[in-house]
Specification:
With about 400 residues, the protein is mainly beta. About 10% of the residues lie in helices and about 40% in strands. The strands form 7 sheets. A 6-stranded antiparallel sheet has the order 10-12-24-14-15-23. Strands 2-9-8-5-6 form a 5-stranded mixed sheet, with no helix packed on it. A hairpin with a 4-residue loop joins strand 17 and strand 18.
Length: about 400
């Protein structure tokens, strides 16, 4: 009997313990709160003022509660009148903040729609664009800097100083003449007299160079752009961004490449090669930052020409992204006839040399959003020799705003 009583009391104690434990567990897990639905509110200042070809920041007040702000989508539109007189909405941006630029003085109605899931909020503002009293041109005709790489066609550029060279190039730009850039790294920097607008969903400007034609072969050119954000009239070092064209992400592309060209000794005897066209196979020495070095061959055809810019010192270094250019000898190894490749998009001197400013990336390859650009740097980004036809080089002709109004005053 005593054993039975003890056993009963033991079971009762255990039952009490578990009941208490279950009660405690229930107290520690209160009822689940219902999920609150996301809310979205939007405010936008009623008006903004700016002068033509200048950017004004349109910053909305967007408040999102109980929702993920990263999932919000933005669409900026402006009313435009088509050729048939019909008024329609034209998309001009898809980021939260709008940098509004217009080429014409007028009053613009700008609408913003913010979407978060099924939630949609809209707001509207007016941007008044004032006249500047200036006359603009579509082309980048102001020379900022110029430094060519060696090439066989610099005999007519035998200037004693860089100042003389710049004066000649500025004159060529004004007159519409082609400017030689040479081989890898040779560049020209020009400025527009207005900000080329980064038009939404459209290509914005074009870079014209020489294109491959028959037996004459040229290298495509890479492009950097700069937006004068601080309006100091200077392309500051931290304002430059590279246009990431079709070759930018390929494994054959070398970022941060540097090559140094050494001035040839005029008194040195030529070192002929095994081919008749190799007049001096040790003409101009070059070294790079990848521990490579070699010589530019002086061809028989251009043996009386100076390849090296005479106003430069004993050596000079050029930098940029080096892009692989396919070069194939189709003369059974004689080095007299070559096929030269090209690139698909994002370069000057190709079939379609039009550029979208939205292709710009920073030094880490990350896309950047620029409202427009004021400066363009064009440089030869390939190093290639084509035997008897010499170095594969190119000439810069012009950079032009593709969306420039026909009647801009």
């Amino acid at each position: 009997m005593k054993k039975y009583l003890k056993h009963s009391l033991f079971l009762a104690a255990i039952g009490t313990f578990y009941c208490c434990s279950n009660d405690d567990s229930k107290q520690e897990n209160p009822d689940t709160q219902p999920v609150k639905e996301a809310t979205l509110s939007l405010k936008l200042a009623s008006d903004f003022t700016v002068s033509r070809y200048n950017a004004v920041t349109v910053e909305p007040e967007v408040l999102i509660e109980y929702g993920d702000a990263e999932l919000a989508k933005y669409k900026w539109t402006v009313k435009v009148t088509g050729a048939n007189g019909a008024v329609k909405d034209s998309v001009i941006g898809d980021t939260k903040t709008l940098q509004f630029i217009a080429p014409k003085a007028a009053s613009y109605t700008v609408d913003l729609a913010v979407t978060l899931g099924k939630l949609v909020k809209q707001a509207s503002t007016k941007v008044t664009v004032a006249e500047t009293g200036k006359t603009y041109t579509s082309k980048a005709l102001s020379l900022i800097d110029y430094l060519p790489a060696p090439a066989f066609n610099f005999d007519s550029f035998s200037f004693a100083t860089k100042t003389e060279a710049l004066e000649r190039v500025q004159s060529d730009l004004t007159e519409g003449n082609a400017v030689p850039l040479g081989t890898f790294g040779g560049f020209i920097i020009t400025a527009f007299d207005h900000t080329v607008i980064n038009a939404y969903g459209k290509r914005d400007f074009t870079v014209l160079m020489n294109e491959n034609s028959g037996s004459t072969k040229f290298s495509p050119a890479s492009i950097y752009v700069a937006y004068d954000a601080n309006k100091n009239g200077i392309a500051d070092e931290n304002e430059w961004y590279e246009i990431a064209g079709s070759e930018y992400h390929k494994s054959t592309t070398v970022k941060n490449y540097e090559i140094t060209y050494h001035k040839p000794d005029a008194a040195k005897a030529a070192v002929p090669g095994t081919k008749d066209w190799q007049f001096d196979k040790e003409y101009i020495k070059w070294t790079d930052n990848k521990n490579a070095s070699a010589f530019i061959t002086r061809t028989k055809k251009w043996r009386r020409y100076n390849y090296y810019p005479q106003w430069m010192g004993e050596s000079y270094t050029l930098k940029g992204t080096k892009v692989y250019l396919p070069v194939k000898d189709v003369s059974d190894g004689d080095g007299t006839t070559y096929n030269i490749g090209t690139f698909e998009w994002g370069y000057g001197g190709i079939k379609d040399p039009s550029i979208d400013i939205s292709w710009a990336v920073d030094n880490n390859g990350k896309k950047v959003h620029l409202p427009g650009i004021d400066f363009v740097k064009v440089y030869v980004s390939s190093y290639a020799e084509a035997g008897a036809t010499d170095l594969v080089t190119n000439f810069f002709t012009q950079a032009e705003d593709l969306n420039f109004p026909k009647a801009s005053k």
